[in-house]
Request: fold
Amino acid sequence: MNKKEFLTSLDSRLQKLSKEERLDILQDFSEHFEIGKEDGKTEEAIAHSLGSPSQIEKELLASYYVEKVESTSSASNVLKAVWAVIGLSFFNLVIVLGPFIALVSLIAAGWIAGTAFVLSPILFLINVAVFPGTFEFFDMFFSLTLCGLGLLVVIGMLFVTRYSTKGLIKYLNYNVNLVKGGMKS
Amino acid sequence: MNIQFKKGALELCVLALLNKQDHYGYELVKKISDQIAISEGSVYPLLRRLKKEEYFTTYLQESQEGPSRKYYKLTDKGREYLYDLLKEWQQFSEGVNHIIKEGVSNE
Reply:
């Protein structure tokens, strides 16, 4: 493999990375080739000592995935993290699972209540449509009030959910460190 | 274990080399591969990782011979980390040597 083949092969394997980072990596290897040639080596010999692009790709992407998990907090990642922490010890089964279930239930209850409040005017309209004789101003205003309240609850829940997720991730990290007893993996 | 072990040792070598003076990538790779058998390409991912951890900074410098070179410079944070690793390494290698002595020199 010569320089061009090596860099092309590496480039095609790093499409997951940002363009900026990819170019930076290729620049590093390109520089390595150039200095190696001044050193009197052939491109093939340099490529051979560097090893296979697929191995280099694995090592580069490993740290990329770690960062990705740290920066995104999608539900599956959170669940994976919870599961990983539980797996660390039986002690954690009680410590993590209890608060986690409580927190999720609370958040779910908030969302359900908020949504129900928002939808209450629709229930009122259905009521009027089905029983045309029962139009009551009190019911209408009451359901409108509930709708307003529901909107506030939903907006509140958005924040609560966001902060709980962040808090949970911090809490899980704390647990991981606690269980590992400060051991570096 | 084996892979992790090599990675840790490689990290220690890179940090130790940069403790005395700044080096560019090719220089680091050459100094290490003169002593230990490594696949040279794996030094670069390691350099990137340690730079992200803020253990060193980089700067470009022109050279007479060819293209400008990216130099790596150890930070104070990196130096602290190097001393931590050195302590761990010394304890570890002393332990291993001790066990080897007991097990092998029984003649």
About this structure: The helical segments of chain A are 3-13, 19-38, 43-50, 53-71, 75-88, 90-130, 137-180.
